[in-house]
Structure formats: structure tokens, C-alpha cells
Amino acid sequence: MTHENMWMVRAGAGAALIDDYLSKGIISIGWFGNQDLSSIADRADLEQRLRVEYPEMRDAQIRSSLSQVGRFLFDFKPGDKVISYDPRERVYHVGTISGGYRYRPELKLTAPDGDHMQTRATQWAGQVNRDDLSVAARNTLGAIMTIFLVNEEVQAEIEGLLSGTPPVVPAAPPEQPENLEEVRMSVAESAHEFIKDKLLKLTWDEMQELVAGILRGMGYKTRVSPRGPDRGRDIIASPDGLGLESPRIIVEVKHRRNEQIGANQLRAFIGGLRTADRGLYVSIGGFAKDAKYEADRAQVPVMLLDLDDVAQLLVDNYDGVDIDTRTLVPLVRLYWPAG
Known about the structure:
- The two termini are 41 Å apart.
- 36% of the residues lie in helices and 21% in strands.
- By secondary structure, the protein is an alpha+beta fold.
- The protein folds into 2 domains: 6-182, ph1033 like fold; 204-328, Trna Endonuclease, Chain: A, domain 1 (3-Layer(aba) Sandwich).
- Helix 2 packs across helix 3 (59-75).
- The protein has helices at residues 18-24, 43-53, 59-75, 135-141, 152-163, 180-200, 204-217, 263-271, 289-297, 307-316, 323-328; strands at 6-9, 26-29, 81-86, 91-103, 110-111, 114-115, 118-129, 147-149, 221-224, 235-238, 248-254, 277-283, 302-305.
- The chain is built from 11 helices and 13 strands.
- The radius of gyration is 23 Å and the shape is elongated.
């Protein structure tokens, strides 16, 4: 067992800052907006500041924020391990905290949850694919909290995978959130990741049928191409099912886990579209930056969907999909207290 703590630190809402984390060698949090926190002496001082800055917070929210920010300011130590998840790539980046707290507005780190000006220097050293982790470890790392301490069993598994010798150990239960809303969000995020796990197990044919089923659940009629050369047209979706009524959506589906679609592939797809068509390119392995640029500048509207997007679209339209589509990825509804 290692003796350094390992902390999970999420890179803003939706991991929006993960590229900044890696390129700038940092981790960050977004509490307190643009205030420098270096003058806060201890947790009592931090609690007083929280109550002044966020008077609308309930006591449970104050306790949760105190735990999260307090750890970043007082519990993190140089030499501690840190991980941060990239849901698009399905990898946990692993590094070592190399510095103390620093207020760095010049980095201009902005995520959907606000500006991140509270930072610590971090040396990123490697990554672990989520699919290589045990189910127990995935469950543990699925907690929604921005910051939490990774238990020793999961830490050993991550470091073992980095070194090529993963230990066979049971994972202890994840650290529990402190209020009902955090629990709900934790369950929702874990469910999203498990749905993605299910999608990755589908064959290419099944993925094509799933995408067609989602489009039918959205109100379109579809024609699915049989196996063989399809000239970039795995699915044609339209209001009439014949492709005569607008909008006619031309769909290409790539079910390759570790392969991003590049600009050349996207240009070839766009080149086969007519002026009145709409393009939908589904790539489970995601898209390179130059491919996203090609989609943005295309004369014909083109939408790119990766694994995260397909999982969310399935959930959003599950009530409307047919039984054949539900059979591919069976889901159940979970009811939760409203308040």
C-alpha cells in the first residue's frame, strides 16, 4: 500500500477544464469567484467567510462546501496523488500535487460552474482507462463530489494499472456525500457512466439500430442500410421515411472505442451531402479537434455525437423509443424525492 493520499478533483462541470489541467499543470476549484483565499487561516475562518459570501446557503450546504474547500486549502499536501476524470476519453488522469494553494486569475479558467481561480500545481504522470478498472473501483470513483479522498484499495488498483501490475483487491465503499441533492447527483452521474458501459458492449450493427431507434423516438422514420458499402449513409431519417420530405438526415455511425474521427473522414462524409440535407455523424471514439472544426465550417448543417451524447439522447428519448430499441439497452426509471 502507498502512504500518500490520493484525491479525486473534478475539472469543473462536465470536465470542461481537463485540457487546461493537463497543459497548465494544475488542479482547481471554483468557489468564492474571484477572491484570493490565501489569507484564510483555518476551517473556522473559512466557515465564517462562507456564511458571509453565501448567505442563502443552508447549514448542510455550508458543511459540504466547508469540507470541499477546506480539503483543497488545508488537507492537500505536495506529494499527494491526484486524479481527474475525462468522460469524453473515459480515462482518469493521474498526477502528483507539487505545490501549495495559489490564486491565479491570469489563467482565465472558466467552466460551466464558474471561474476557477483557486489552484495548485500538479505534475501529471499518466492515465488509466475506466474500462480497465474493476466494477467496484468504478462505483467508488463515480461519486459526484468535486473533491474526495480515494480509498487505499482503489488507489492501489489505479497505481497498479499505471505500473502494469494491477492488484486484485476489493474496493471499499465510496465516500458518501453529505446531503440529499449530492446523493441524487452522484446516482445520476454513476447511472450515466453505466449506460455508457452498456453502449460500448453493443456490436456495430446494434449501435446502428440503437441510433435509428433514438431517431424514431424523436419522431422521425428511418431506413437502415444493410451491411456493405453504404457511401457514408448508415441511416436515412426523415418525416416520411422515404427521404422525400425535409429535413432529410443522413447518418454515419462509427462504433470504434479507441479511434477518433479526423478531418479527412468528416470531409468525405460532408462531401456526400446535398444542400438541403442535414448530417449526423456518430463516433463512439469521439472526434479530433480538426474534425470539429470541419463540422463548424461546413455549408450543410452537421451534428457530431460521441458516446456521452448518445447516452444522454437515449435517456432523454427513452419513453418514446420502441421495444426493439429498449431491448438493446434496457433501462429502468428511478424516482427520487423532490425536496
